[in-house]
């Protein structure tokens, strides 16, 4: 795994839950609670995508939620990364090909990191966030290059 | 020539004031220049976050003056329905009403019902 060198600020995460059974969401909460305590690294959940660097998405994404998810993604500032948590978001899971499902998530918005599992363990979620962090560093370097 | 105005509660000096204005402008510019340069105008990035819902027009979210009386008008809507129907905004209509009601009152008073 690469070293974090460029992105010298806390990583803020926005969580969008689209049709999730809540299991993935509970594991995300577990990442923040004292056992893992991701906030000590500055990784924290924020209440608005306009403040966020990473979009954490759970659930198979019902059709009614697809346009809202697109809007949330577009509201995030660049550079940004999308992390999908759980099987439903990754592949559609047991809801694959259902009439009312617009997902998997990569059919709605571009995805950078997949964390499969039903639900994935908190360690896997933290690993996914670190991968997203590396991706954002790469994007930020590209953005800096464009500015110069 | 002194630029300082001394008062019992302190002093005011335009030169000093301009120096502070310049200083704060520099600080404001420094904060502004550290902002996110990849910010995109005329996209969803400038719109408020409403749980992913589209932003309604200003007219739809604005609280109108009439909204203040909503409860009052709702409670007396039977009365207001009639009143609003005859409220045409045409002055000639109101004069006709005035003359008509005046005639009835006159008839009652003089006619001796």
Derived structural class of chain A: alpha/beta
Poorly predicted runs of chain A: none
Domain count of chain A, please report it: 1
Number of extended strands of chain B: 2
Calculate Rg of chain A over CA atoms: 15 Å
Helix content of chain B: 40-55%
Q: What general outline of chain A do the C-alpha atoms trace?
A: globular
Strand content of chain A: 5-15%
Structure, explained:
The complex is a heterodimer of chains A (148) and B (113). Chain A has one domain (11-147): Rossmann fold. Chain A has four helices and five strands. Chain A has helices at 23-32, 63-75, 87-91, 122-147; strands spanning 12-17, 44-45, 54-58, 81-85, 113-115. Chain A has a five-stranded parallel β-sheet, sandwiched between helices. Chain B has 113 residues and is mainly alpha-helical. Chain B has a two-stranded antiparallel ribbon with strand order 1-2. In chain B, a hairpin with a 2-residue loop joins strand 1 and strand 2. The longest helix of chain B has 21 residues, at 91-111. The radius of gyration of chain B is 32 Å and the shape is elongated. At the A-B interface, helix 2 of A face loops of B.
SSE topology:
The complex is a heterodimer of chains A (148) and B (113).
Chain A: E1 12-17, H1 23-32, E2 44-45, E3 54-58, H2 63-75, E4 81-85, H3 87-91, E5 113-115, H4 122-147
Parallel strand pairs in A: 1-2, 1-3, 3-4, 4-5
Helix pairs in contact in A: 1-4
Chain B: E1 5-7, E2 10-12, H1 14-33, H2 58-61, H3 70-75, H4 77-86, H5 91-111
Antiparallel strand pairs in B: 1-2
